[in-house]
Amino acid sequence: MVSKLIEKIQKTKAPICVGLDPMLGYIPEQVKEKAFKELGETLEGAAEAVWQFNKTIVDATADLIPAVKPQIAMYEQFGIEGLKVYERTVKYCQDKGLLVIGDVKRGDIGSTSAAYAAGHLGTVQVESRTYEGFHSDFVTVNPYLGTDGVKPFVDVCSQCDRGIFVLVKTSNPSSGEFQDRVIDGRPLYELVAEKVVEWGEASMDGEYSNVGAVVGATYPEMSRILRRLMPKTYFLVPGYGAQGATAQDLRYCFNEDGLGAIVNSSRGIIAAYKKEQYASFGADHFGDAARQAVVDMIADIGSVL
Description:
By secondary structure, the chain is α/β, with parallel strands linked by helices. The protein has a single domain (2-302), classed as Aldolase class I (TIM Barrel), CATH 3.20.20. Helices cover 46% and strands 19% of the residues. The protein contains 13 helices and 14 strands. The strands form four sheets. An eight-stranded parallel barrel has the order 1-2-3-6-7-12-13-14, surrounded by seven helices. Strand 10 and strand 11 form a beta hairpin. The longest helix has 19 residues, at 43-61.
């Protein structure tokens, strides 16, 4: 699966993904009003507003980008109705030719991880029939439980041509409380990186592994170390834009050939119309604002590669 991601990145010349994290506060009033008029101020109404918002963003940007990253929590908060929209969004994006990185951050004991992997990446057997669940192309995985929690995902990657991004050094301010702890003279994130390389050897797809890593752009010096430790591991890079990281902070995440990383931006794109830079588009044209934000992000990252 990572080879497909690389192919799409090279075709679009855009090593970025749009984070579809639709908080209600990001959705323009006219979209919410229409949904609530039809379905009431209910979970169903909120989910419909999310769907219409997502559809507009995807329609406006799909030809420019290789992938999207819906964060499942933004859908789960609306219960079953939200999960229906999550599934609908995944399928709609794939129908548009986009790869989908399901930001689900799963990871549990072996049998539970196997069920998560089947539901989000693979298939599930129901008596004589086989079904696909959410069927993302990639998902994010929490490695806290060790190999027991990660291996079932790696197995599905190999069996079904899928991919994962394992949390290694995340972009949030408190990530260092655990990830930077020194164990046997080395920070924990380095030890996790070495396990990611080990797990990845079981699912190589050309030059890179289907087992990738989440490496936050907000810690550029650490990303330089991790790039050296994981030369054949693709990075999913959060933290650009709204979280404070700049294009200059991204440069260590990439290899010399310009490959090796895909950079995520969520509210910086989907809520671009709220930023002064794109205010001229107005809420009625929030999709056009998102498109321009994508164009600007591509140019910004391209300037340092």
